[in-house]
Amino acid sequence: MHKKYIVRLTSEEREPLEGLVKKGRIAVPKMKHAQMLLRVDAEGSNWTDERVAEALGCHAQTVQSVRQRFVEEGLEAALERKPQARPSRARILDGEKEARLIALGCSPPPEGHSRWTLKLLADRLVALDFVEAISYETVRRTLKKTSCNPIGGSVG
């Protein structure tokens, strides 16, 4: 198979990579990426992507991606995990909405209730048009991050 991105490590790049691999006290993805680069080096081992993938227990596409990032962006980009282009899901509660939730939870509970529950808070946020929809679990996680506990008892 013809390789589109050829890795040629200089001695200034190879030495730190070998040091990382020998040290062994770094994050596993960074260690694997360093091992990949050392093995696909055209001036060194020059292994195929498939052989490297088999040796390191990953997919050949991963090896190709690391190779591409090294050629296009440099050594540091190839060693680190690729950052997510965008979050998987948009946050339901931003800072302003979190503040409104806490303020709502610190206010007196609705008529007929002795205290706020997670379900009551979630329903009230929807009723007041702060959010279109929200689960009580999202409310629980948000309140757990704060030191304020407006619903009484343990939130998790």
Architecture overview:
With 156 residues, the protein is mainly alpha-helical. It folds into 2 domains: 11-79; 95-144. It is 54% helix and 0% strand. It has 8 helices and no strands. The longest helix has 14 residues, at 60-73. It starts with 10 loop residues before the first helix and ends in a 12-residue tail after the last helix. The mean pLDDT is 88.
Blueprint (SSEs and pairs):
Blueprint lengths: L10 H13 L4 H13 L8 H8 L3 H14 L1 H5 L15 H12 L11 H10 L8 H9 L12
Helix pairs in contact: 1-2, 2-3, 2-4, 3-4, 7-8
Rounded Rg: 25 Å
**Low-pLDDT runs:** none
Oligomer: single chain
Number of helices: 8
Distance between the termini: 54 Å
Classify the beta-strand content into a percent band: under 5%
Structural class: mainly alpha
Summary keywords:
0% strand, mainly alpha, 8 helices, 2 domains, 156 residues
Short summary:
54% of the residues lie in helices and 0% in strands.
